Amino acid sequence: MTFAVKLAELRTDRKLTKKQLSDLTGISQSLLGAYENSGVEPGLFNAVCLADALGVSLDELVGHTPRRKAGR
Fold first, then answer.
1. 24's torsion region: left (phi>0), alpha (psi -120 to 50) or beta?
2. Do residues 59 and 3 make contact, with C-beta atoms less than 8 angstroms apart?
3. pLDDT, tens digit, for every residue of 1-28?
4. Across residues 54-70, what is the average pLDDT?
5. DSSP annotation string for the chain
6. How far apart are CA 72 and CA 66, in angstroms?
7. In 3D, which of 44, 41, 42, 32 has the Cα closest to residue 8?
8. How far are the Cα atoms of 21, 27, 71 from residue 10, in angstroms, in the given order?
9. Average pLDDT, the chain
10. pTM of this structure
11. Distance of CA 62 to CAs 34, 40, 65, Å?
12. CA atoms of 63 and 1, how far apart (whole Å)
């Protein structure tokens, strides 16, 4: 799942508009639209703001699944 799809899914699951998410994060609505529709990915600061506002970890926001190390 791409970052854009994951962000849109998390936002809509929480019944947030782009305006509401913008108000929570300080990220403009146009930039949120670019994240969701244009393949633009946020820098670390904005990613942390988004994860906090959506109540998820950065790993979940970016779709990262930690790999298990051999022997564990």
1. alpha
2. no
3. 789 999 999 999 999 999 999 999 999 9
4. 85
5. --HHHHHHHHHHHTT--HHHHHHHH---HHHHHHHHHS-----HHHHHHHHHHHT--HHHHHT--PPPPTT-
6. 13
7. 32
8. 11, 16, 34
9. 92
10. 0.87
11. 16, 13, 9
12. 7
